[in-house]
Amino acid sequence: MELALLFLLLPVAALSGWWLGRRQPAPASHDRQGGAFSTEYFKGLNFLLNEEPDKAIDVFVNMLQVDSDTVETHLALGNLFRRRGEGERAIRIHQNLIARPTLSKSQRALALFELGQDYLRAGLLDRAENLFSELLEQGEYRAQALEKLLDIYQREKEWEKAIDMGRRLEHATGRRMNTLIAQFYCELGDAARDKGEFRTALKMAKRALGADRRCVRASLLQADIESTTGHCKAAVKSLQQVERQDPSFIPEVVGPLMACYQSLGKLDEGERYLTYLLDEYGGITPLLAIADLLQQQVGERAASQRIVAFLCERPSVRGLDRLIELQLVDTTGAARDNLLILRELTQRLLEEKSPYRCHHCGFKSKSLLWHCPGCKQWASIRPIQGVVGE
Question: What CATH fold (topology level) applies to the domain 2-173?
Fold first, then answer.
């Protein structure tokens, strides 16, 4: 990369010095400029020959004069430095460009945008925000500035500003931002719930569903608030909505749903709904919940038979682990020892597996996250399906 940069700088620096020498009005001045150029040029070559490329780059960059013919070169150099992770050099070049009064309006706007990206890459979010906001006021690079501001507000967790940027970006580009906006409302709802502000949290959940009716996170948040405040019937309605939004999240629904049915004294109704989910979508989580009900109502034998019937059609480590647990109740001697060995194996498999995975980048997680740490996508992590999953 450094060699490529030097190959770019050498001819440009030489041409810049030659051109400035040609433009000097007096021969004496021309000689001085030519001498200065030669000194700096050969100084840079000396650094290069002594395997000091960083110093050589600095010399050649300083030789470049900013005018209408070299603006593109300065911008290219600044971008190259930023990609190399040399933020200070990139910032210095772009700041030097902006300070020049000879720049056209479009050139200055581009330099401002590039400097904003330098600040963003360096983590100087306040400075980057100011520059992108200035571009918005000028009406320059509107869509790009909105995207960068949206990124900044997400990093700073300023969700109300992020919602505003998302809506403005949607209006400017026609790109649907409903998924992101719904997630931002859920972030506000989670914060309000954690502070015990349930009315505000519920309002944010409803706004999230207004932005994206398929937002599973909003339905789960709404159900959690309703059940916490004693409105289990409303919580059941919210939880049942998840099946229509995204069936892959059914495992997240089963536990809180059965807790609500138990509070309402309607376990029979809950069992019917679990049976419907199992028949319609399959999955080990509804099956295990039905097995728990059978164990409570009839006994371990009936629960084991139901699990065995399921495993014959669809193998599952979680199902096998639960079956072994049930069998251990009435087993003794060598058979029990063998079951304990098997149970240890299934337990290790379950402990080592990550039950959630991002469908966008493949990031795996032990818990359900709504913002992927790997690819930074929202609502991209789902429960894993398969033998070791759901």
Answer: 1.25.40
